[in-house]
Amino acid sequence: MIQKVFSALLIATFILSNPTALADNLHAQFKGKVEQASPNIADLAEALSPTVVYIERTEESKFRQIPDDPFHQFFRQPDRHIPRVSAGSGVIVSSQGHIITNYHVVEDAESLKVTLNDERVFDAELVGYDEEIDMAVLRIEADGLFYAELGDSSDIRVGEWVIAIGSPLGYRYTVTQGIISALNRGNSVRLNAIENYIQTDAAINFGNSGGPLINMKGEVIGINSAISYGGQNIGFAIPVNLIKASYTQIIDKGSVSRGALGVQINSLSNEAKEFFGVTHGALVAGVTEGSPAEKAGLQPGDLLVKLDNTEIIDSGHLVSLVAMKRPGDAISLQVIHNSAKKTYRVVLGDRADLVPGSGPSRAKELKKPTHEPDIQIESIGLSTQWDESDSAWVITDVQPDTPASAKGIREGWSIIRINQTKLNKDNGLKVFSDLKASKDVILLETENERGTKIFFLKPQSP
Question: What is the pTM of this model?
Answer without folding.
Answer: 0.65
